[in-house]
């Protein structure tokens, strides 16, 4: 084995590691999540049919599902450019899933070190294994596509901030609420949008695991926050605000994914001029035309992330003012979130 240090990136963590010698279990909810986590392990090598042909030059996502395709500018592009855009955009999005899953693998492992309860450690160990399987399955799939794109700068920043946080509750907020809120929405939308059976099956398997991960955030983090001193709770609330702000910054830069180098490479590979595209996006916005994806898609902020943060007490009276100043609405309705977490997402029929 020879480590490739050129592709490695080293971070330092101030996290406290916690032994726990009280092996009594007093949270049945966590114990149940641990049991389900153990029983629901699937195997990308054993349970999926990798002989399914994948043509990376053909769109793997229903073309009507890309928000940008609603632009007249986009429709005026030559067919070959539009097709190249879909193929590369799919590779870009799935590459973000791949890198994000590696981040999830490491944050779950860090939680295993840091959470102060025995049943908490057992549960996050299952999440660590889940995330390892997710990295594996997306790597296997992405390697069949046009190319592997680099990790988006905003996603890297968000996960780095989470990985180098000094308290386990911050890690759980950054990963199990913010990043996984985003991921859960993307996976659900991908499941609806994809035209590839193998990708749909992968996404369903991942979703089934993710529903436990989001439920963990609710079950465990809420109790952790309730036990904190008020000053520490405000520190957590500031972390939650900052994490959401990183995400909001990404959204503000628009559906064109801002100046993310990976996205610019998608455009270059599709021979679409980035300045022309940005101009078309701002014109559409100025005229009040929507370039959002279809409305049946789940909205990460509104439906998942913000309600999850509010529910566990990570948004305080004081931090609400920060959200208001930053013009980020504090959505509170948890109904979609609750319908997604720890629920079987349809019947999974692996081969
Ligand atoms: Fe995952
Ligand atoms: Fe996860």
Could you explain how this protein is built, in words?
By secondary structure, the chain is mainly alpha-helical. The chain has a single domain (66-340), classed as Ferritin, CATH 1.20.1260. The chain has 14 helices and no strands. The chain has helices spanning 28-39, 44-47, 72-75, 79-114, 118-142, 153-163, 168-193, 197-226, 230-252, 261-269, 274-286, 300-312, 317-325, 335-340. Helix 1 (28-39) runs parallel beside helix 5, helix 1 (28-39) packs antiparallel against helix 8 and helix 5 (118-142) packs antiparallel against helix 8. The longest helix has 36 residues, at 79-114. Bound molecules: fe (ii) ion (2 copies). One fe (ii) ion (FE2) binds next to helix 4, helix 5 and helix 8.
**What is the C-alpha radius of gyration, as a whole number of Å?**
20 Å
| SS strand fraction | under 5%
> DSSP helix count?
14
Bound molecules: fe (ii) ion
Domain count = 1
**Fraction of residues in helix:** 55-70%
Walk me through the topology.
Elements: H1 28-39, H2 44-47, H3 72-75, H4 79-114, H5 118-142, H6 153-163, H7 168-193, H8 197-226, H9 230-252, H10 261-269, H11 274-286, H12 300-312, H13 317-325, H14 335-340
This protein binds fe (ii) ion (2 copies).
Short description:
The chain is mostly helical and 351 residues long. It is built from 14 helices and no strands.
